[in-house]
Specification:
By secondary structure, the protein is of the alpha+beta class. It has helices spanning 2-14, 24-30, 49-59, 93-97, 128-133, 144-147, 151-162, 168-177, 186-197, 202-211, 216-219, 222-226, 239-254, 262-272, 282-292, 297-300, 314-328, 333-345, 348-355, 360-370, 374-392, 399-416, 428-435, 441-455, 463-479; strands at residues 19-22, 39-44, 62-66, 72-76, 82-87, 108-110, 136-137, 165-166, 302-303, 309-310. Among the domains are: 2-128, Beta Polymerase, domain 2; 271-419, no CATH class; 423-479, Serum Albumin, Chain A, Domain 1. The radius of gyration is 28 Å and the shape is globular.
Length: 480
């Protein structure tokens, strides 16, 4: 970092320009959070493009023209670090900083100064350094949220990432302006929400956005309805409180190194780290699934003839709702499909538990339906049950349901996942060649029969086992 900054300073001097290091990079260096820095922002007096061309020759990387209100040119280095250069807005750096949202992001360091940074040379018109020392996020003015409503969610996102508190006046202003969040573009809201979900205490900040900021219900209106229902024979709190607690329990399991048996835990850790999109991991989707697992309860609420409140079918109405939310947030098709599966299938592990049915057939059917989301669903179901029972009976031992979940997870990992894609063991063409079958639906049925035979332990999970099954299968059919 120090070498890079000195190269940028030298390039600016060589071109006779005046430049400043600004924004989040300044803040993160002052917080000594270098590992969080993914981009560095600079303000240049005059057109920055000639400077960018020179820097590309020195540093390599790719130049990208960004379409924003303020012209911005980005240099993406080979290690992924992004350098953003913007022409100064106004005649002075102080005028430029007026457009920033929070005081801790409205500091600048002159690039003709020494490096590493000297605090006494900081340009800090709004007291950002003082706020950093007080662990506070504070707006630069009351107009910042009107100028860009995305800042309403950016504040709790910064809280989650940096571990800072929100200034009381800023929190009050966000609450007053919370309705404006609907004006922000879905893809930008997506980014901020998932940055919150990346943090280890997502549940706290999701709850804070509701309790203190009256904000999250503006993104997901059904939340207000969830607060009015849910208390019944099994729930002592409303559905929204239960859902937040479910995320909390899920996080406590996810980040606990000794919760599951080692081989199951290791599989969970690898699985949770899978990238679903370029920027989103499976772990963040699991948290969102835990948050939304009961989102369909308001629309499914019914009172039966005995006066008992029921929510039959809430998993289906909820799945349709999360599909709408995913589309509004411009989530990828795969992410929406995964979330839909989380909500629509989250009751199955509990149903199997109540029926005391972990037979091979029941598990195979579950694994076929859940697919690659099996481990996710087991974790959501476990978190759901723990959060329900711990509020109902705080001293209750939850070991039996945990054992149930571990048993199913172990069967998935050892028996089903190796043959989940049976074509990796034996292909349709190999089946046709081995038994002289024409291409058609019957081949698919044979492959499915081989998969079941392997899962039930009738044949080894290998190519040899598959060929053995084929010979026996067609010998028996010829004899009939």
């Amino acid at each position: 970092m120090d070498r890079l900054m000195k190269q940028i300073q030298q390039a600016i001097r060589d071109q006779g320009k005046t430049g400043y290091f600004v924004g989040g990079g300044v803040r993160d260096l002052l917080l000594e959070n270098r590992e969080r820095i993914q981009d560095l922002d600079f303000v240049i007096q005059g057109d920055p493009k000639p400077l960018m061309d020179g820097l590309r020759e020195i540093l390599g990387g790719t130049l990208v023209e960004m379409e924003k209100k303020v012209p911005l040119t980005r240099l993406v280095l080979k290690d992924g670090l992004m350098l953003d250069f913007m022409e100064m807005q106004g005649k002075t750096i102080e005028e430029d900083l007026k457009g920033r949202d929070f005081t801790i992001c409205a500091m600048a360091y002159p690039l003709d100064g020494p490096w590493p940074m000297k605090e006494d040379l900081l340009i800090d018109p709004y007291g950002g350094l003082k706020d950093l020392r007080r662990n506070l996020i504070r707006m630069t003015s009351g107009d910042v949220f009107d100028e860009d409503p995305l800042r309403l969610i950016r504040a709790p996102r910064l809280m989650a990432q940096l571990g800072l508190d929100l200034d009381n006046d800023t929190a009050r202003m966000i609450r007053e302006k919370s309705h404006l969040i609907r004006k922000a573009a879905g893809e930008r809201l997506n980014r901020e929400l998932f940055l919150i979900l990346k943090e280890k205490r997502s549940h706290y900040y999701l709850s804070y956005m509701d309790r203190k900021l009256d904000l999250i219900n503006k993104l997901f209106p059904e939340i207000d309805c969830m607060k009015d229902i849910g208390e019944c024979k099994y729930h002592v709190v409303d559905s929204w409180t239960h859902s937040i607690y479910t995320v909390k329990v899920a996080e406590s399991i996810i980040y606990a190194h000794g919760f599951f048996e080692d081989h199951i835990r290791e599989n969970y850790e690898r699985h949770a780290e899978e990238k679903i999109t370029k920027d989103h991991k499976r772990l963040e989707l699991i948290k969102l699934g835990a948050l939304f697992h009961d989102i369909g309860k308001p629309s499914a609420k019914k009172v039966d003839t005995t006066g008992r409140t029921r929510f039959r079918g809430h998993e289906i109405t909820g799945a349709e709702l999360v599909k709408e939310y995913g589309e509004q947030l411009k989530m990828s098709r795969r992410e929406i499909e995964i979330l839909y599966k989380y909500v629509s299938l989250h009751m199955i592990p509990l149903v199997l538990y109540k029926k005391n049915d972990v037979s091979g057939k029941a598990l195979y059917n579950f694994f076929e339906e859940a697919g690659k989301e099996t481990l996710d669903l087991l974790l959501i179901a476990l978190s759901d049950i723990v959060s329900t029972r711990k509020l109902l009976e705080p001293t209750e031992e939850m070991g039996m349901f945990k054992i149930h979940v571990e048993y199913i997870a172990n069967n998935y990992i050892t028996r089903y996942r190796p043959i989940e894609d049976i074509s990796k063991v034996i292909s349709g063409k190999e089946v046709m060649d081995a038994v002289k079958l024409p291409e058609g639906a019957f081949v698919g049925q044979v492959l499915e029969d081989i998969k079941k035979a392997m899962f039930y332990g009738h044949i080894p999970q290998s190519k040899e086992g598959a060929h053995r099954y084929l010979k026996q299968y067609f010998r028996e059919n010829e004899e009939k």
